[in-house]
């Protein structure tokens, strides 16, 4: 599988957020996306995930068989997208059934993120870092070659960050591709990096606030 992104531009509301973002990723590649608050990092992931139309430019996935782009990706956003009333194991079982192409069973994914002891706990009882680990465990319950991760280390302690880096490197070693936004350094080997710069405000709008 290969991901080719050409000359993307993004508008939010009436504003141009960024221009001219291009990159190409092959199996095993990781791309780290940096930039200031509001630069458009999450918006870029939204475009890659098919959740937001670009103002211009193209996103192409090749050598992915007959699967569409949405069927090839895991998207872990700022919000954990977990159901608070369901247990951790029920959340992962639901994700596994919903996503298709199953990989690890829910209990094995819980073990991989160090939360096997919390299998029967409703997600609403978990701490922020534990909820983040459950969200990340979704990466393991279905085979999807492209991982789009929005600030994946947020709320994670040092040990959990190490666990996450291990999962990411294993995914790359298996031929997966990762695009991750971050404000903190990510310990990924030979990762590519792109810095998103907010497009300048046109002079006709200058003075109307950012
Ligand atoms: N649905 C929306 N409608 C209008 N503007 C939006 C919408 N979502 C985001 N924006 C704006 O788009 C800009 C880019 O937001 P985005 O969340 O992509 O930035 P970011 O680089 O991920 O920021 P951060 O580092 O703070 O997470 C911001 O100015 C934000 O207010």
UniProtKB/TrEMBL annotation:
It comes from the Bacteria. Gene3D superfamilies: P-loop containing nucleotide triphosphate hydrolases. Keywords: ATP-binding, Cytochrome c-type biogenesis, Membrane, Nucleotide-binding, Translocase, Transport. Residues 3-208 form the ABC transporter domain. InterPro entries: AAA+_ATPase (IPR003593), ABC_transporter-like_ATP-bd (IPR003439), ABC_transporter-like_CS (IPR017871), ABC_transptr_haem_export_CcmA (IPR005895), P-loop_NTPase (IPR027417). The keyword DNA-binding does not apply. One of its GO terms (molecular function) is ATP hydrolysis activity. GO terms for biological process: cytochrome complex assembly. Belongs to the ABC transporter superfamily. This is Heme ABC exporter ATP-binding protein CcmA. The lineage of its organism: Bacteria, Pseudomonadati, Pseudomonadota, Alphaproteobacteria, Hyphomicrobiales. The gene is ccmA.
């Amino acid at each position: 599988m290969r991901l080719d992104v050409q000359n993307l531009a993004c508008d939010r509301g009436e504003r141009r957020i960024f221009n001219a973002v291009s990159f190409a990723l092959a199996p095993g590649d990781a791309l780290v996306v940096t930039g200031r608050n509001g630069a458009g990092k999450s918006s870029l992931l939204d475009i890659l995930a098919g959740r937001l139309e670009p103002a211009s430019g193209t996103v192409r996935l090749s050598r992915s068989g007959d699967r569409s782009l949405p069927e090839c990706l895991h998207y872990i956003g700022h919000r954990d997208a977990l159901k608070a009333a369901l247990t951790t194991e029920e959340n992962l079982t639901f994700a596994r059934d919903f996503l298709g192409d199953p990989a690890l069973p829910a209990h094995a994914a819980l073990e991989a993120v160090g939360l096997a002891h919390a299998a029967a706990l409703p997600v609403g009882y978990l701490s922020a870092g534990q909820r983040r680990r459950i969200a990340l465990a979704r990466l393991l319950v279905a085979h999807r070659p492209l991982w789009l991760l929005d600030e994946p280390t947020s709320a994670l302690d040092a040990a959990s960050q190490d666990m996450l880096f291990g999962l990411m490197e294993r995914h790359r070693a298996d031929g997966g591709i990762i695009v991750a936004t971050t404000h903190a350094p990510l310990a990924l080997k030979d990762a590519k990096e792109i810095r998103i710069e907010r497009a300048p405000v046109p002079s006709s709008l200058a003075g109307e606030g950012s």
